[in-house]
Amino acid sequence: MVDLPEIRFAKAAGSSIAYEVYGDGPATICAVPPMAQNIELAWGSPRIRRMFERYASFSRQVVFDKRGTGMSDRSLDIPALDERVDELSAVMDAAGVDSAFVHGLSEGGPMAIMFAATYPDRVEGLILEGTAAALTSDERRAEMRDPEQLARIAESWQPFVEGWGTSDSVTLALFAPSLLADEEFAAWWPTYERHAASRDALMDLLYMNSEMDARGVVGRVECPVLIIHRTGDRIVPIEQARRTFELFDEAGADVRLVEVPGDDHYTFAGDLEPIADAIERFTTGRVAPRVPRPDHEIVISTMGRFEVAVDEQPVRTSSWGSKRARTLLKRLVAARGWPVTRDELFELLWPGDDSDRLGA
Question: HEC string of 17-49?
Answer without folding.
Answer: EEEEEECCCCEEEEEECCCCCCCCHHHHCHHHH
